[in-house]
Write a structure and sequence with these properties.
This protein is mainly alpha-helical and 213 residues long. It has a domain of 138 residues: Tetracycline Repressor, domain 2 (Orthogonal Bundle), CATH 1.10.357. Helices cover 77% and strands 0% of the residues. The chain is built from ten helices and no strands. The longest helix is centred in the middle third of the chain and has 26 residues. The relative contact order is 0.11.
Length: 213
């Protein structure tokens, strides 16, 4: 019985207000959620902290977002179009980019979203069981990376492109995590090392496939 109840709770969706005051309240709650998740990670964030950051009553938060998964899914929906736009921009120039430039562009995908990048990394990296929407978002990001790789190097096998995409996504998340740790025992040079490693890795993949560097 408890399992069914949990499933029903996870399947609930966010309330979408039609009036401007409600829309502004939801926007404020999402901004607060993004900030707390970026700071404390998905697993470390509580609904009470989000409500406090937004200066809202906890009941108001639960009215629009019945649980943390629903709140995370709403953030994912907000990020979805923005991430897609960054990949579209890369794809438009993929044919003219060197492999090193392409590696940097892919590593910068989350960074190009500036303040949102830490939230996206936290949502993708949460150790708790991922909701269906968060799993789908992770798959979509890997799919976009693979598409970009195939556009730049059509000789790659699709299965290999998907494997490389999984590695690159990990490196993208690592770049975001390292950036957050700069000044906390991590030097900026660590970011350079990650970039160099990714460039060499992608160059080897393309060379083996017979694609121009």
């Amino acid at each position: 019985m408890s399992s069914n109840k949990s499933t029903e709770t996870q399947e609930r969706t966010a309330l979408s207000p039609q009036r401007r005051p409600g829309q502004e309240r939801v926007a404020a709650l999402l901004e607060a959620a993004a900030a707390v998740i970026a700071e404390k990670g998905y697993d470390g964030t509580t609904m009470a902290e989000v409500a406090a950051r937004a200066g809202a009553q906890i009941g108001s938060l639960y009215r629009f977002f019945p649980n943390k998964d629903v709140l995370a899914n709403a953030l994912i929906e907000r990020f979805h179009a923005r991430v897609g736009a960054v990949f579209d921009a890369i794809d438009q120039q993929a044919d003219t980019l060197s492999v090193a430039m392409l590696a940097d562009a892919l590593l910068n995908v989350l960074g190009d979203l500036r303040s949102e990048s830490q939230t996206i990394v936290a949502l993708l990296d949460g150790s708790a069981e991922l909701s269906a929407r968060r799993q789908e978002f992770r798959r979509e990001v890997r799919k976009r990376i693979a598409q970009t790789l195939l556009k730049r190097c059509p000789k790659l096998r699709r299965a290999q492109a998907e494997d490389v995409a999984a590695i690159l996504l990990q490196n993208m998340k690592s770049l975001g995590a390292l950036t957050k740790e700069i000044g906390n025992g991590v030097r900026p040079s660590a970011l350079t090392e990650l970039r160099v490693m990714t460039r060499h890795y992608l160059l080897k993949i393309f060379e083996d496939a017979g694609c121009q560097a």
